[in-house]
Input
Amino acid sequence: MTPHLLLLSLLALLTTANSDHAMDKKTYIFRVEHRAKPSVFPTHADWYASAAFSDGAVDPLPLLHVYDTIFHGFSASLSPARATALAAHPNVLAVFEDRLRRLHTTRSPQFLGLRNQVGLWSDSDYGSDVIIGVLDTGVWPERRSFSDRNLGPIPSRWRGSCEIGPGFSASLCNRKLVGARFFSKGQDASFIGGINKTVESRSPRDVDGHGTHTASIAAGRHAYQASMAGYAAGIAKGVAPKARVATYKVCWKGSACLDSDILAGFDRAAADGVDVISVSIGGADGNVSPYYLDPIAIGSFGAVSRGIFVAASAGNEGPSSMSVANLAPWLTTVGAGTIDRAFPADVVLGDGRHLSGVSLYSGKPLARSKYPLIYPGNSGGVSASLCMENSLDPTVVAGKIVICDRGSNPRVAKGLEVKKAGGVGMILANGESNGEGLIGDAHVLPACAVGSAEGDIIKKYALSAATPTATIQFKGTILGVRPAPVVASFSGRGPNGLNPSILKPDLIAPGVNILAAWTGSAGPTGLESDGRRTEFNILSGTSMSCPHVSGAAALLKSAHPDWTPAAIRSAMMTTSSLNDNAQMPVTDEATRKRATPFDFGAGHLNLDRAMDPGLVYDLADHDYVTFLCAIGYDPRAIQVITHAPATCPARRPAAENLNYPSISVTFNIASSSAGNKNHSKAVIRTVTNVGAKAETVYRARVEMPAGQGLAIAVAPTKLAFTAAARRQSFKVTVTAAAAGSGERYAYLVLSDGAHEVQSPIVVSWILPL
Output
């Protein structure tokens, strides 16, 4: 895209907004060529507030945020007409409208291979010198997970602060919680209507719970006798228990996060001196934007270019294909898997059949052995089948166990509707899209979630039996579950919907039924009517898997301070596990079949091996610039992302040659169907020896499940490293049989006898542009 076309597309968007809402103000984010600032202005903020950016308007720009670290520019609440005029300013590189984002919402460290006194925990001193910035809903600092007992001084490089607000004093920060900030200007100026002071705290305090949960997953201290109302009892701890936490409240109660505030959080975190950023946030509408119009992609590039590792959640729109979020290649995108712990509950039907489900219900059990069973969807329509608000007739459901279909409204809200209507219990049945993926919830009444197949059996029984009855039996916590991990059905899947030459997600980590610290302002369901309070809560989502990788990055950064963000990601990806704890290939919860790299990327995070990966696939800023040129971005669009002027080569490079730890090859569907010839493509990779032995030889081999229809050749097949030659390049040629359908995959393994450096190779077919 040429600079002229980029500007025209932005103007067209704003002009459309102008015609539709001539009098409405909206928040816009402006990317400015900061090098053009006249020296007469002391700061960029002074420049933006001056007549130079007034465009003839009487009033100066009503600035919300001024960005000056990893992004240069500002956000402002303006009429579409004024935004359109500013878009044409010679020093404005890009402008985009503020958008709404959503949050992607004890035992898991051991499940990742971490052990006390040995391995990565010991070698990294539990991450004690690393600072993790968490962009989320804030923090509830009084939890034991944020104790600074026996921690050393705060790293001297730290430049952050503890912002005060209602119910949040500076004294709440300590040697563990080293910083806390909040960003609300985007919210205040938005169509959402600003901060609701009756339920929110205009401070870093977390009244939602999500931010406290994610921060403690990444870096929570050891908390003994932890549980959620008796479930998952044990010692709760984060992946990097001694790492420091800095929280940046960019999301507010109800999962509302705006791009302008998120970008301000990125900008401030980088200026404060964090080493890792954790972002469990993604698009609210399932759509993806080009990198130059995506503030998370832009903010994370600025962070990575400063040596900050950024992990982001893959989204919860699975199991459908192409549902993965946060697609930028400089991000580490994390999907979700299960761990070897479960919270089983059984539905017992009146005819004696037992059907398995899960539940975190902790109240009084059902008093009787059998209760009448009803499926309101049979007569009450779709809203009743979903147990939507005010959809249930108390005269019909009172005293009964109610079957509710999953979808549309929150799972726990369905139980509340059943309770309000006088029901004694609920069976939450998955639909076909959810498959057999089950998530435990701390329901407000006796309730159990069951998979799609079990749900169909229960509904058929309820509709066919003369007097259907049932009960629910709760079985507490079970450890040692097999198989685990399993790819969570909700986890975002590939292929990459923006650039299929990059495989996303990168890997998976624990994200199902994770115990971590919780807010003191909400019950475990998060419902306003839930008056229960608990120090810990159990949640599921890629929001939970993302901070596992953030904590892992902190450990690796502490053990290897000279590693780049790309090297850290490579170490995690190339040592990931492809097998579960039954030593069988990892399966997909949605289909119960073998998972593929489109489901789980490089595999499941395995920190027992990541400390010593042998080889890494490293990347620098110029590599990403070359990639952006390869996918057709012009220098102006690239500058919006990278902060610096860019020049693309005369001959467009191949996007597949980005030195990524996975290999994704695409072929054109049209050319594939034109004849029976095979299709072939070669890609280049370069590996760096980071092992203890400078002189070593790695040999390449390809492993492939049967029936893939691929031929893969590696040249050379032997890579010899010395102290003077720690980097070696090789070529991978992928040939696919001429059948342009489906996705195929294999694995490249480089081995020196002590290390197995493993990379997925995927092949997919795309429509021509």
